[in-house]
Inverse folding.
């Protein structure tokens, strides 16, 4: 009996386990209503004893052990009995089993956790999907309604369109009908008109006959005397010749008119051709060089040769000045080609500009927008500055012009005073300069007088010296002819040269031999051996000084005159 | 601008002589010839009956006076006042009379257009032209006076005959492809003749001097067709005004239309200048008022001054819807005139009767619109400069030139309703005509 009781206990205990599990479940996870996962948390320590004592008590140890053994063996664990028959427990196997059970428990727990996580995830995904589904359903509803509406509208418009087409057709038919009516009526009217006109003509004929027959004397012209013709000529008979002449005249008139028109057209044509050629040249110059456009080459086979061809054509045209079909066509065709190329180029540039700055392109061809904008800003600033300047200048001008009388008078006076001051300054300067000039002139005249006197003295000296020389020469000629004659020549040479050249040794001799009396102003003074060279220098100096004192305008005179006299 | 005093006139018959020195005017049966510069009367001639038509001969030596009722044409000489000449058509009647270009022949059209008689003043010869057409403009002379074109109708078909004016020999005679030839006109260069059909059919034919058909132009088929035609002075353009309120311009090279000018009731182009005549109330000095009011005061009170103002575009013009069931409706371009320098074309659309449209021919665009207060009666270009004078039935004359426009009041008392005007060939003066009076206006 106790056995039976114990057998029923596990069931109950399992139930209580379950209930406990459920309660623990409820405590832990109230949301997972569908979950069938059994959670086996470790019960609290309070319940532990009761939990453990519920299964095995002191009375049913044997049964519980055998029960556990049976369970373990069914689960695949080794038996906990030491031997198959005996009631001794194999502690090691029990511990092993326990360990195994623990690890199993851990594994199960982990698996449970994972499964629960997944369960949660799936739950939220499900929620999300349900929401999406609901929204999409709404959208679908809306779109369906819209479609229905649009379809309705479309149907209405189509019916309207059909109506309008019908109306149009009706109107057209009516118009056609009316036109037919009009044309038929017009023909009818024309016919009637013609009939009436014929009647009318008949009446007119009858009337004409009557009038002609009547031979009304009244139909006449009374004139005092016949007047001469306007051009003074006499009237001519109408003959065939005159008829022919008339024809001729008429054709002449027509021809001259045509010729005039043709001339005008030729002139116009020539101008237009010139314009076209100019345009062609300009288009060619506008187009970029051919190497940048390999694509163009493939499209238009003749691109490279075209400009040269055209230039050749130009020359041809200039030479011939014909307007034959082929030449004209060539010109227009070539212009069309060039224009197309230019258009493509411009379109490309437009595309490039619209595409933006980020792409790398050939900088020299295109100015980037930013640069362009910068430039425009700069230019605007400049314009602003200039405008301001103009304004200020205008204001100043205005001030000048629209001052009241006092200020203008004052200003004018100021200007006059300024002017006067300036003029006075200038006068002063002028007077000073005049004084200076006077002084200089006086000094010049004095110098000139001095020079004149000096010159006179010099001349006298020279004359005396020459006399002396001559006398000495005649005296020395007996001594050595070789010496004198060359020396005479030498002397004369030296005479000529001495003013300008520095003295040489030969000179020294001569100078030494020359008068010792003259020290100043004679050309060949040689007061002593110590100063042979000095004197000509002195003379040169003097002459230079005299030059200076005489003013810059006079040097040549002195020198030249000396030279002349010497040569003489 | 100077105005002369008002002189009596009857029948709107006042003509300048071709040399511009004299002015002939009619008062009932008297023909008064005045000097233009001094307005002194040079001669007065008395005719047998009320004069219906006067014309100067081309050399300004003779004047013909036609009296249609009596069928008499009288010719007067300026050089010899005693010289007289009378042409009596008798029972044949007279409906039209004109000079030939040489000034020595008179062409009389007898009643019912039975024939045209060419009377010569130099010889005793008389020529007859049979079957002339009774149309708006049946006899036209070239500008140089060499040739004359006559529209004829035989056996219900239209023909044109070209005569040589020197000896009246028939040069060419050809038929035209018109239903009912309405008018013919020579081009100023004398080489092309334009002939057009009546308004029932839009058809314009161009014939060369030797009778060849050069071209034929038809703009549309059924609605009413051509109303007016004008050649440009250089013969380059032919302007055709039609009942559909458009002017079509043909060019002389291809005889094809080069442009169409429309006359809508609303002008929206920004480049057109619209001058609108507005009345300005006269300023009266209250001190000058006296009782009873003097004549001058009264007239000045009641005659309103007017001036031109520029209206801002878009402008909508006064438009008259034409009566649908009348013949010759007041629709379409009824008046066309080219200026003497070939640069401008003045048109009037009869639906919009208060307006003159001036087109720039060089640019083929509408240049100016002149909107007046009353219906335009007459406009004429100055024969020398691009200057347009127009009158609207009141006592003001309006002038337009490319530099501007002005409205001038003709001074004088009483009513002077100008219905017509005519320029002197020198361009210095013009004569303004009303039903009872005329006045001479000197411009320079």
């Amino acid at each position: 009996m106790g056995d039976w009781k114990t057998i029923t206990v596990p069931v109950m205990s399992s139930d209580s386990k379950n209930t406990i599990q459920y309660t623990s479940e409820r405590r832990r996870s109230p949301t997972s209503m569908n979950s069938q996962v059994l959670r086996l948390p470790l019960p609290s320590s309070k319940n532990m004893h009761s939990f453990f004592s519920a299964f095995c008590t002191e009375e049913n140890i044997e049964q519980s052990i055998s029960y556990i053994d049976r369970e373990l063996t069914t689960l695949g664990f080794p038996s906990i009995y030491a031997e198959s028959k005996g009631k001794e427990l194999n502690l090691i196997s029990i511990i092993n089993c326990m360990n195994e059970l623990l690890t199993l428990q851990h594994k199960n727990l982990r698996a449970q956790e994972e499964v629960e996580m997944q369960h949660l995830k799936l739950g939220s995904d499900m929620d999300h999907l349900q929401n999406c589904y609901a929204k999409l359903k709404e959208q679908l509803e809306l779109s369906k309604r819209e479609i229905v509406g649009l379809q309705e509208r479309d149907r209405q418009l189509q019916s309207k369109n059909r109506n309008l087409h019908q109306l149009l057709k009706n109107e057209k038919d009516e118009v056609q009908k009316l036109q037919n009516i009009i044309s038929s009526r017009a023909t009818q009217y024309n016919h009637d008109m013609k009939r009436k006109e014929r009647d009318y003509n008949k009446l007119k004929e009858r009337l004409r006959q009557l009038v002609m027959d009547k031979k009304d004397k009244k139909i006449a012209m009374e004139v005092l005397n016949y007047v001469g013709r306007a051009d003074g000529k006499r009237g001519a008979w109408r003959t065939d010749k005159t008829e022919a002449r008339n024809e001729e005249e008429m054709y002449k008139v027509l021809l001259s008119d045509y010729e005039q028109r043709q001339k005008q057209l030729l002139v116009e044509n020539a101008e237009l051709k010139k314009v076209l050629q100019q345009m062609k040249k300009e288009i060619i110059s506008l187009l970029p060089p051919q190497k940048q456009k390999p694509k163009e080459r493939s499209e238009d086979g003749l691109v490279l040769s075209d400009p040269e061809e055209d230039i050749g054509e130009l020359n041809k045209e200039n030479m011939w000045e014909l307007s034959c079909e082929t030449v004209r066509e060539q010109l227009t065709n070539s212009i069309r080609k060039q224009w197309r190329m230019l258009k493509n180029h411009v379109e490309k540039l437009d595309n490039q500009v619209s595409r933006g700055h980020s792409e790398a392109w050939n900088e020299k061809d295109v100015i980037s927008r930013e640069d362009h904008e910068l430039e425009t800003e700069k230019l605007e600033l400049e314009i602003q500055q200039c405008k301001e300047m103009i304004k200020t200048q205008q204001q100043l001008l205005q001030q000048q012009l629209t001052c009241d009388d006092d200020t203008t008078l004052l200003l004018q006076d100021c200007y006059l005073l300024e002017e006067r001051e300036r003029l006075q300054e200038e006068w002063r300067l002028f007077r000073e300069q005049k004084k200076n000039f006077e002084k200089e002139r006086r000094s010049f005249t004095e110098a000139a007088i001095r020079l004149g006197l000096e010159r006179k003295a010099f001349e006298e000296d020279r004359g005396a010296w020459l006399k002396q020389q001559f006398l000495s020469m005649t005296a020395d000629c007996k001594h050595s002819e070789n010496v004198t004659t060359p020396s005479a020549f030498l002397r004369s040479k030296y005479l000529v040269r001495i003013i300008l050249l520095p003295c040489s040794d030969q000179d020294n001799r001569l100078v030494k031999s020359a008068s010792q009396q003259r020290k100043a102003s004679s050309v060949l003074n040689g007061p002593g051996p110590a100063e042979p060279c000095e004197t000509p220098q002195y003379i040169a100096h003097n002459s230079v000084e005299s030059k200076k004192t005489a003013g810059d305008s006079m040097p040549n005179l002195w020198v030249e005159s000396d030279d002349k006299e010497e040569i003489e | 601008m100077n105005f002369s005093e008002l002189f009596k006139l009857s029948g709107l018959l006042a003509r300048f002589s071709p040399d511009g020195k004299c002015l002939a005017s009619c008062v009932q049966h008297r023909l008064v010839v005045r000097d233009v510069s001094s307005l002194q009367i040079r001669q007065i001639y008395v005719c047998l009956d009320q004069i219906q038509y006067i014309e100067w001969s081309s050399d300004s030596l003779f004047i013909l006076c036609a009296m249609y009722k009596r069928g008499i044409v009288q010719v007067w000489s300026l050089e010899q006042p005693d010289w007289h000449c009378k042409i009596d058509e008798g029972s044949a009647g007279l409906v039209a009379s004109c000079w030939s270009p040489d000034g020595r022949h008179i062409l009389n059209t007898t009643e019912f257009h039975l024939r045209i008689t060419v009377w010569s003043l130099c010889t005793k010869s008389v020529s007859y032209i049979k079957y002339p057409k009774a149309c708006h403009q049946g006899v036209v002379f070239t500008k140089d006076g060499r040739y004359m074109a006559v529209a004829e109708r035989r056996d219900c078909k239209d023909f044109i005959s070209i005569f040589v004016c020197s000896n009246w020999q028939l040069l060419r005679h050809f038929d035209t492809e018109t239903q009912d030839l309405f008018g013919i006109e020579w081009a100023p260069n004398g080489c092309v003749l334009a002939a057009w059909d009546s308004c029932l059919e839009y058809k314009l034919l161009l014939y060369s001097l030797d009778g060849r058909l050069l071209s034929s132009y038809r703009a549309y088929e059924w609605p009413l067709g051509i109303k007016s035609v004008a050649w440009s002075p250089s013969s380059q353009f032919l302007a055709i005004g039609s009942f559909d309120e458009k002017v079509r311009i043909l060019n002389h090279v291809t005889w094809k239309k080069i442009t169409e000018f429309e006359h809508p009731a609303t002008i929206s182009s920004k480049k057109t200048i619209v001058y609108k005549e507005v009345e300005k109330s006269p300023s009266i000095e209250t001190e000058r008022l006296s009782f009873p009011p003097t004549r001058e005061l009264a007239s000045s009170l009641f005659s309103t001054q007017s001036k031109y103002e520029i209206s801002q575009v878009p402008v909508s013009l006064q438009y008259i819807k034409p009566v649908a069931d009348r013949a010759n409706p007041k629709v379409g371009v009824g008046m066309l005139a080219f200026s003497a320098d070939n640069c401008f074309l003045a048109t009037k659309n009869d639906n919009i009767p208060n307006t003159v449209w001036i087109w720039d021919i060089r640019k083929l665009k509408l240049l100016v619109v002149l909107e007046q207060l009353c219906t335009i009666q007459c406009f004429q270009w100055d024969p020398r400069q691009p200057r347009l004078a127009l009158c609207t039935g009141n006592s003001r004359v309006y002038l337009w030139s490319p530099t501007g426009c002005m409205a001038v009041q003709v001074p004088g008392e009483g009513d002077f309703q100008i219905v017509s005007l005519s320029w002197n060939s020198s361009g210095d003066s013009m004569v303004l005509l009303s039903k009872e009076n005329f006045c001479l206006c000197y411009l320079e």
User: Anything to note?
Assistant: Chain A has a mean pLDDT of 73.
